[in-house]
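hiii so um. not sure if this is the right channel but i have a protein structure encoded as tokens and i wanna go backwards to a sequence. like what aa goes where. can anyone help
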């Protein structure tokens, strides 16, 4: 069985994008190969549909969620091989959610990761079907590739709950419902808008945070971790996922579109709830810093084995795209 390389010297000192790249490079190669292997369909899958699925799933990306599965497994003393089915499954769910979120009836995006979105590159019906196919494919992959039946059932439960009506889909529904309301004035905070802030946090703890939490919990489940370890990685994930969204909102206000890989300023134009819109830019930055510190505090119990998780947390805080 393959174990990832643990580098204790990197713990608590990794602060640059280069450090984050080094922490993920030996994981990413295996993830990419596993994703390619998982999209080799037989003749029952029409060519156009298979192409659209691969276009979405294999698009250039950071692979944060599948990497989190493997990082959690490593921190909990498990193997990369045992955790890889969870990494593939969570990326399938993530890819499906991006396909559907980008549709004209949803967030109406024409650019994703620097490339045309699936409904632009193919067509709207093919994009919908590609997303539809990726959902069950994720659970099929878990059921066929996790050898321990108890862990397989629990992994399916964790991912299904994260992707369902109360979390990922529910968060997206609330996000759409919150559009076209005057929640911000050019990035300046609005006094007395605590209810909107609570609503925004609720949206993103489900829409973005749900898959972050599921990713880390899958790594713990598939490595047979203790309840204490499982709770620690979930707490880390909850803070990391929210920090990721705060930074994402800041990038939508400030980043150059060519670096961002998607249309900048779109959220503000659509009147969506955002952290800079509700808190102001500086307070949003401070919130992100506090969340990252909290995330890192949760994984101290793993010691040096959590070096990748600490590195990734620092990277999320310093993202530029």
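sure thing!! here u go:
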């Amino acid at each position: 069985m393959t174990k990832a390389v643990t580098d204790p010297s990197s713990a608590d000192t990794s602060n640059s994008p280069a450090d984050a790249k080094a922490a993920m490079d030996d994981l990413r190669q295996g993830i990419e190969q596993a994703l390619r292997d998982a999209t080799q369909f037989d003749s029952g899958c029409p060519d156009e549909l298979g192409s659209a699925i691969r276009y979405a799933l294999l698009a250039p990306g950071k692979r944060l969620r599948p990497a989190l599965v493997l990082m959690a497994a490593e921190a909990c003393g498990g193997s990369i091989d045992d955790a890889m089915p969870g990494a593939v499954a969570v990326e399938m769910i993530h890819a499906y959610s991006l396909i559907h979120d980008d549709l004209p009836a949803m967030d109406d995006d024409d650019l994703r990761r620097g490339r045309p979105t699936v409904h632009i590159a193919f067509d709207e019906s093919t994009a919908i079907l590609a997303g539809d196919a990726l959902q069950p494919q994720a659970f099929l992959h878990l059921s066929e590739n996790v050898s321990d039946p108890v862990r397989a059932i629990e992994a399916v439960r964790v991912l299904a709950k994260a992707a369902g009506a109360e979390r990922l889909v529910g968060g997206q529904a609330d996000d759409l419902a919150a559009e076209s309301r005057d929640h911000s004035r050019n990035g300046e905070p609005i006094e007395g808008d605590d209810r909107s802030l609570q609503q925004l946090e609720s949206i993103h703890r489900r829409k973005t945070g749900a898959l972050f939490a599921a990713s880390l919990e899958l790594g713990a489940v598939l490595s047979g971790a203790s309840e204490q370890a499982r709770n620690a990685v979930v707490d880390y994930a909850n803070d990391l996922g929210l920090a990721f969204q705060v930074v994402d909102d800041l990038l939508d206000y400030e980043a150059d579109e060519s670096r961002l890989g998607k249309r900048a300023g779109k959220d503000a134009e659509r009147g969506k709830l955002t952290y800079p819109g509700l808190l102001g830019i500086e307070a949003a930055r401070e919130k992100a810093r506090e969340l990252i510190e909290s995330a890192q505090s949760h994984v101290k119990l793993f010691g040096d084995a959590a070096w990748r998780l600490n590195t990734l947390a620092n990277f999320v805080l310093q993202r530029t795209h």
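oh and The longest strand covers residues 111-112.
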